[in-house]
Structure of Ketoreductase domain-containing protein:
Amino acid sequence: MSFTDKVVIITGASSGIGASAAKMFSKEGARVVIVGRNEEMLSATATHCPSSLVIRADITVDTEAQRVIDETVKNFGQIDILVNNAGGIPLRSELTEDTLMQAFDSVMNLNLRAVVHLTTLAAPHLIKTKGNIVNISSVAGSTPPFGPGVMSYCVAKAGLNHFGVCAAVELASYGVRVNTISPGPVKTNFQKNANYSSDYEKMTEVTLIKRVSEPEEIADMILYLTSDRAEGVTGSNWICDNGFSIKR
Ligand code: NDP
């Protein structure tokens, strides 16, 4: 799986799955674009990625998403791979609370709208390189909600799953592949940021094979799907959840 000189944009590369993917792509010779908001954590990822560009941006702000694409092309001249990984639950709210619409908007903006926006901005560049896209969804997009106040996240990820299929269809004739990965529980900052317990020991009980994934396992899948070895794979949704969905 050689990525020599490929230009890879990874959103949410300051932490967790995105940071692991940035390091792995970099090890395989890619020029990685490390996107996120936390300057310190972005720099920490960049120290492991020799040929990288850090772009501090909030991808839910349209002008900042545009800047991610513009700065990438200005610095590296092309885009080969877009990894729409940034996501999470910035606000939790239940249907019966008057905070619901604020939570819904923030979660949809991050997990779905920003992905659609970055995809449309990157598409002309990916068409030129016959590149590809991987979206990081969640088993929350296809299994019942796993706790109060996360309806918006489940709906956003379900939308993301279908967006992946629609985008694969629309971009197929241009030679651009689009795939989705749906992780189950992964040991990252996601749980802490979403006000979930990060008792991973306890979490193993909800999976079929009694384990929780490391971020590198999801990053591995990202590298496979974006490599030439997966040239026959598009419009797919790969589940990596230690059997969490089946058990539920
Ligand atoms: P982390 O919280 O460790 O990473 C989330 C990343 O998203 C951070 O780098 C964060 O960067 C970035 N991010 C959040 N909001 C924005 C924003 N507005 N603009 C730019 N970047 C943003 O969690 P994970 O690594 O686990 O999450 C990666 C993906 O995996 C997400 O889409 C998540 O939904 C999905 N997922 C995770 C699971 C898990 O158990 N960990 C399970 C299923 C799916 P910064 O704070 O610097 O902006």
In short: DSSP finds nine helices and seven strands in the chain.
